[in-house]
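Review session, final week

We close the course with one last complete record, chosen because it touches almost every idea we covered. It is PTHD3 protein, a protein from Picathartes gymnocephalus with 291 residues. Go through it on your own first, then we will talk.
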Amino acid sequence: RLSCIRNNIWLASCGVLSSGLAVLSSFGLMLFCGVPFVVTVANAPFLILGVGVDDMFIMIASWEQSLRKKEKSSVKALLTETYAEAALSVTITTLTDVLAFFIGTWTAFPSVRSFCLYTGTAFVFCYVYTMTFFGAVLVLNHKREQGNRHWLTCMPVGVGKDQAENSCLYNACCIGSCSGQPSQPEGEHPMSIFFKKYYGPFVTNKWIKLLMVLLYGAYLGGSVYGCTQIREGIDLRNLANDDSYVIPYYDDDEKYFSTYGPRVMVVITESVDYWNETVRLGIESCVQNLE
């Protein structure tokens, strides 16, 4: 926003900070519990950031709607209305994400198991910080706006006849308009108008609802079939760079040696006198017998 009072830069920054706190808390807890940290876990913060920022947008949008509905209500009433609107959607998305990653801990791959543990726990902390820390930040930001304070310095912003004597640049930076008058409150967002007037009536049409049910049934059937066909595994060629020597090596290995079956290795667990010719001949005989 152009208004130096209605600007929400610090609010957005605290939303990102909330995701960072969730990552630190989850990583600290998992390391304290002795869960191995593998290189794939380094991707988790980007997932948490995406979900945390999404929750932040939902909270801010619900707060703005509550503010328009109950402009003169108390902070407690506004926050109650915000959580009533936002908490349900945030909770559902968090539960589905946590469930998906904790199911991933059943895998046989230790690296994937560690990644799912770290990420699933981070989602839990992200939810906790969104419902507590970010809600408190919303209230503090609202009190700043009510006090007519600058978004950066939190100093009171004077608006009136005295500001008309200041330069246009000063008024634009410190008030939000060159005229020296406070900016008008924002109206309803165009996207909200679109969903309310056009998209909502469209999807609630009885024929569209029937089509949605049929499409979802087809999607659900395809998902169940896909779950029965999926196989756990990994292609090592996908882990190498496109120009790596590993890729042609595995291509040739599959082309020329796949018919021989898996490699078999023999491990001798005792001390062996390799200098003794009789022992060496015995080992050679053992290998021939295995072949």
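Two points worth writing down before the exam:
Residues 8-187 form a domain with the Multidrug efflux transporter AcrB transmembrane fold fold (CATH 1.20.1640).
The mean pLDDT is 85.
Good luck, everyone.
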